[in-house]
From TrEMBL:
Principal cellular location given in the protein's record: membrane
Ranges that cross the membrane: 18-39, 51-75, 109-131, 161-184, 205-227, 247-267
Domain G-protein coupled receptors family 1 profile, first and last residues per copy: 85-276
InterPro entries with a match to the protein in the record: GPCR_Rhodpsn_7TM (IPR017452)
UniProt entry tagged with the keyword Coiled coil: no
Keywords recorded for this protein, A-Z: G-protein coupled receptor, Membrane, Receptor, Transducer, Transmembrane, Transmembrane helix
Cellular component terms per the entry's GO annotation: plasma membrane
Protein name: G-protein coupled receptors family 1 profile domain-containing protein
Membrane disposition: Multi-pass membrane protein
A single GO molecular function term of this UniProt record: G protein-coupled receptor activity
Locations listed in the record: Membrane
C-alpha cells in the first residue's frame, strides 16, 4: 500500500513538472518577449526608469524561465540534464510619486543600479559553483545537487531561500507597494492649486501595473516561501511516503513561484486598457508595417534577368 502511494506521488510530481512546467514556461517566454517589444518600441516608455526596470525584468524573466524552470522540467520530467527587479519597480514607483524623492527616478540611476545588482548577484553565486556537486541522496535514490561545504550549506539553507527569495522581496514589495498606493490616493485627493504636476496617464498606467504585479507576486511567492521555511526546518523525513509528498509539494509550489516570471505581461493586459491598445499599435502599426515595407522594398529591388534577345533589342533602340 505504501509503495502504491509513493508511486502515485511520483507520477503526480512528474506530470506536474512536465505539463505545468511547460505551460508556465511557454506563456512566460511569449509574454516576456512581447513586454520587451512594447517597452522598447514606444518613446513614452523609453523615457521612464520604471519602464526600464520592467524591460530588464522581462529579460531576467526569460533567463529565469530558460535556465531555472526549463532545466528543472528536463531533469525532473525527462531525466535530461542540459548542463530581482519587481522590488525595484515598486520602490521606483513610490519615489516617483513622492515630491522629495522623485528626482531619483531617472534612467541613469536605474542603469547603475541594474549593473550593481548584476555584479552582486554574480559574486553571490560564485560559491554555489565552487561548493556544489552531484550526489545520490539515500532517501530518494535520485541524483541531485548538494553542497560539499557544510558551512555554506547551512548558510544557503538559512539565508538565500528564506530571506532573499522569501521575506526580503515580500517585505519590499508590500511596503513600497502600499506606500505608492497611498501616494496615488493622496495625489488624487489634492486640490489643483498645489505646486505639483498632475500625474500623467503614463505614470498612472505604470503605477497600476506595478501595484497589481506586486500583489500577484506576493500571492505566488508565499507558498514557495512557506514550503522552504518548513523544509529547511525539518531535519529528516521518516519514510518514503513523506519524501514523495515533499517532492510533490516542492514541484507544485515551485511551478506557482515561477508565475513571478511568466505572468507580468498578462497582468498588464488585464489591468490596463491603454496597454492593450499599445500592444495592438506596436504589433500592427509599427512592426507589421515595418516588415511589410521591408518585404515590398526587397521585391521592388529584385531585377528580373533579361534574355539575350531582349538585351539586343534594347541596345538597338538606344543606338537611335
Amino acid at each position: 500500500m505504501a509503495s502504491i502511494a509513493v508511486e502515485s506521488f511520483k507520477l503526480a510530481t512528474n506530470e506536474c513538472n512536465i505539463y505545468g512546467g511547460f505551460f508556465v514556461f511557454s506563456i512566460g517566454i511569449i509574454g516576456s518577449i512581447l513586454n520587451i517589444i512594447i517597452f522598447s518600441s514606444l518613446k513614452a516608455f523609453r523615457e521612464t526608469s520604471t519602464a526600464f526596470y520592467m524591460t530588464v525584468a522581462s529579460a531576467v524573466n526569460i533567463f529565469q524561465l530558460v535556465f531555472g524552470l526549463l532545466t528543472r522540467i528536463l531533469i525532473n520530467g525527462y531525466n535530461i540534464d542540459p548542463t530581482k527587479t519587481l522590488s525595484s519597480m515598486s520602490i521606483d514607483q513610490f519615489l516617483l510619486l513622492t515630491n522629495r524623492w522623485c528626482h531619483l527616478c531617472n534612467l541613469q540611476l536605474a542603469s547603475r543600479l541594474i549593473i550593481i545588482a548584476v555584479i552582486v548577484s554574480f559574486l553571490h553565486g560564485i560559491p554555489v559553483i565552487l561548493f556544489q556537486d552531484l550526489y545520490p541522496p539515500l532517501d530518494t535514490g535520485q541524483t541531485s545537487c548538494s553542497f560539499t561545504n557544510i558551512g555554506y550549506s547551512i548558510y544557503y539553507s538559512r539565508f538565500p531561500f528564506p530571506i532573499l527569495l522569501g521575506i526580503l522581496p515580500l517585505t519590499v514589495r508590500i511596503t513600497f507597494g502600499v506606500l505608492a498606493f497611498v501616494n496615488v490616493r493622496a495625489l488624487h485627493n489634492r486640490q489643483a492649486g498645489l505646486c505639483r504636476k498632475e500625474i500623467s496617464e503614463r505614470d498612472k498606467q505604470l503605477t497600476t501595473m506595478v501595484l497589481v504585479e506586486v500583489a500577484i507576486g506576493v500571492i505566488v511567492t508565499l507558498p514557495y516561501s512557506i514550503y522552504n521555511y518548513f523544509y529547511t526546518s525539518a531535519a529528516t523525513f521518516p519514510d518514503q511516503i513523506s519524501v514523495a509528498e515533499n517532492q510533490f509539494i516542492s514541484s507544485v509550489t515551485r511551478i506557482i513561484f515561477y508565475g513571478n516570471f511568466s505572468l507580468p505581461f498578462y497582468i498588464n493586459c488585464c489591468v490596463s486598457p491603454r496597454f492593450r491598445r499599445q500592444l495592438v499599435h506596436v504589433l500592427l502599426h509599427i512592426h507589421l508595417k515595418y516588415w511589410q515595407k521591408k518585404i515590398n522594398r526587397r521585391r521592388m529591388n529584385q531585377i528580373t534577368p533579361q534574355s539575350p534577345v531582349d538585351a539586343n533589342i534594347v541596345l538597338s533602340l538606344t543606338a537611335f
